[in-house]
Amino acid sequence: MLNLTWTTIFSDDELYGMRTNAVSRFLQCETPQAVESSMELARYLNRKGLNSQNYPLVLELLREENFNVIEALLEGEDPFEYFSKVQTGPYIIDFALRMLDKYAPARMYEKTLAVIFGIFYRTYHDAKQGYKLYKLTTEHLNSIGKNLDKEKGQKDPINRFILDILGDIGKYKSINGEDEEVDRLAAHAVGIRNAFFDRKLSMGSVIPKELLPREDYRLNTVMPRDVVPYTD
Question: What is the pLDDT of residue 175?
Answer without folding.
Answer: 80
